[in-house]
Automatic annotation (TrEMBL):
Protein name: Sugar-binding domain-containing protein
Keywords from the named record: Glycosidase, Hydrolase
Superkingdom, taxonomy of origin: Bacteria
Residues of the Glycoside hydrolase family 2 catalytic domain: 312-451
Family named by the database record: Belongs to the glycosyl hydrolase 2 family.
Signal peptide positions on this chain: none
Residue ranges annotated for the Glycoside hydrolase family 2 immunoglobulin-like beta-sandwich domain, each copy included: 186-271
Length: 575
């Protein structure tokens, strides 16, 4: 059935997600290439003589907002084509870069028949230097995509060809913004901004081929620090009278960088994350050197009309603002990497993020990934396979670099419930070495290898009791729980009803939600519980256990009730 969101109903196919897609490396040069493209689906990898129709990019052909409504199958090729004409005022000289926010799973990019780039990995951005292939006037841009979903061991998230239950309809192709920019020959390729709150400074690294960059840091429009930074060398820039970032005060410093003819803008937030002990010696998650309870909600990032792609910038903001209004301080971004603007809104609005890596590997054995939900047990690492670990580790490193500057990311989660898990303790160590500024939940749910910073539990089918602390100095977190379901007629994907407990009225759901927290969750806080992740932000397909319906139209619980529960959580931590 059609499930357009309010933003989907207002969508202009000729002006789709037009906002600048990279908020921490902004240039004035920007050409948005979203909108109507030609498309075709073929049974082989030969470009078709004629195309099948039009698709609205960046929505996948499986998504209603694409205007296509077709499923790309393993072995098929999805073709995109459009005309690319650089507008007057786009400038001359330098290099022209073509950017793709994400294309699922593998693709080739051609300009005027010349291959200018290729990429594998459906969740990470890539760019192509198209300067040599460009002609004056109109150019033909073509993209060829293959997506074999879960029949190959590529990163796939919760997509499954045989969808159902906790596995969702697969989507394919271009699903984040496509755009172009012109840059000088020597330009800022990346910008790394690492806050060191305790030392009142920002470590700035300007990644470029050569040269020196002039860096300014501004607070509320006034310059508070300047430095000259050699390309490729980290330089610590002191910040006077530092104003820390937090969910209660999400203050961001603006950053400008000039390298020769290139000028970029970004931002940084001064904050620190870690695990320490409270006054009673209990391990806690720390924010800016103090214990801070993470009252979180699981966020799948699926949309009823756009699937992986939010229908608008306002739609992304709605989810974050709604959860913040309900008293949540954290979103666990579950097995998905969002467009960079989503993270920007978390940064500026003040919402902590736990970022999952996208799972991969072969088919998952039920003993490893399902049975522990009913009968808790942990298997040692030798029970796990080694599913294309080199590719997974490469994408893990790319993910860290891609999201390193995000102010709000507090926790990295490499593995969830054994999905594609391998060498979890080693992976946690490598992840901590890659980014020592954040904490690591090495095995969310079960199959704990005793590593990382968190002892991470999922509890759905039994009462939750905080385990005895013993000698474990990791912080205790309930990284998934709840999942209480309620069907709201007129706002459901189909007639299925998946949830860990089902209720037939909002009143009964509300009473159960309040009772769960009063009897099980709040008492555990003084015994060491440092974070909770309630399942989940919205319904997704068969799953009817969201706080919001899939189309985001109905909040199933009274706002006052949820706020009151979250207030007890955030105030319940021992001082």
């Amino acid at each position: 059935m059609s499930m357009l969101t309010r933003w989907g109903r207002e969508l202009d196919p000729d002006a789709v997600l037009t906002e600048y897609p990279r908020p921490q490396l902004v240039r004035d040069s920007y050409l948005n290439l979203n909108g109507r493209w030609d498309y075709a689906i073929t049974e082989d990898d030969a470009e078709p003589a004629a195309y099948d129709g039009q698709i609205v990019v960046p929505f996948s052909p499986e998504a209603e907002l694409s205007g296509v409504g077709r499923q790309l199958m393993p072995g098929q090729t999805l073709w995109y084509r459009r005309t690319l004409t650089l507008p007057a005022g786009f400038g001359t000289g330098g290099r022209v870069l073509l950017h793709f926010g994400a294309v699922d799973q593998t693709c080739r990019v051609l300009l005027n028949g010349v291959e200018v780039g290729a990429h594998t990995g459906g969740y990470l951005p890539f760019s192509c230097d198209v300067t040599a292939a460009l002609r004056d006037g109109a150019n033909v841009l073509t993209v060829a995509v293959r997506d074999d979903t879960d029949t190959v061991p590529h990163a796939r998230g919760k997509q499954k060809l045989e969808r159902g239950g906790i596995w969702y309809t697969p989507q394919s192709g271009i699903w984040q913004t496509v755009w172009a920019e012109r840059v000088p020959g020597v330009h800022v390729e990346r910008l790394t901004l690492t806050p060191h709150l305790a030392e009142s400074c920002v470590e700035v690294t300007v990644h470029a081929a050569e040269g020196e960059a002039d860096v300014e840091i501004l607070a509320a429009g006034s310059v508070v620090a300047r430095a000259t930074v050699p390309a490729g060398r980290p330089v610590r820039v002191p910040i006077p009278d530092v104003r820390p970032w937090s969910p209660e005060d999400p203050f961001l410093y603006d950053v400008t960088v000039e390298l020769g003819a290139d000028r970029v803008r970004g931002y940084v937030g001064m904050r620190s994350f870690g695990v320490g002990t409270d006054a009673g010696g209990v391990p806690r998650l720390m924010l800016n050197g103090r214990p801070y309870f993470h009252a979180g909600v699981l966020d799948q990032g699926y949309w009823s009309d756009g699937m992986y792609t939010p229908p608008s910038d306002e739609a992304m903001i709605h989810d974050i603002v709604t959860m913040k209004r309900l008293g949540f301080t954290m979103l666990r971004k579950h097995i998905k990497i969002e467009p960079l603007r989503w993270y920007y809104h978390c940064d500026r609005l003040g919402m902590l993020v736990w970022q999952d890596m996208v799972n991969a590997g072969g088919r998952y054995h039920p003993l490893l990934v399902t049975a522990p939900a009913f009968v808790p047990f942990h298997l040692p690492d030798r029970w796990f396979g080694r599913p294309h670990r080199d590719r997974f580790m490469a994408e893990l490193r790319e993910t860290v670099e891609h999201l390193r500057n995000v102010v709000s990311i507090a926790v990295w989660v490499p593995f969830n419930e054994g999905w594609g898990q391998f060498d979890a303790a080693r992976v946690a160590r490598e992840l901590a070495a890659l980014d020592p500024t954040r904490t690591v939940d090495h095995a969310s749910g079960w199959h704990d290898q005793g590593a990382g910073d968190l002892r991470s539990l999922h509890v759905y089918f039994r009462r939750f009791r905080a385990p005895r602390r013993r000698r474990d100095r990791r912080a205790l977190v309930l990284s998934e729980y709840g999942g209480y379901g309620l069907r709201v007629d007129g706002h459901t994907f189909n007639d299925r009803n998946f949830g860990y407990r089902r209720y037939d009225t909002p009143e009964r759901l509300g009473a159960a939600f309040a009772r769960l927290h009063a009897e099980q969750i709040v008492p555990a806080i003084r015994r060491g519980l440092s974070a909770t992740v309630y399942t989940q932000l919205s319904d997704v397909e068969d799953e009817l256990n969201g706080l919001l319906t899939y189309d985001r139209e109905v909040l199933k619980l009274p706002e006052d009730l949820v706020r009151a529960v979250n207030r007890r959580l955030t105030l319940g931590q021992a001082p």
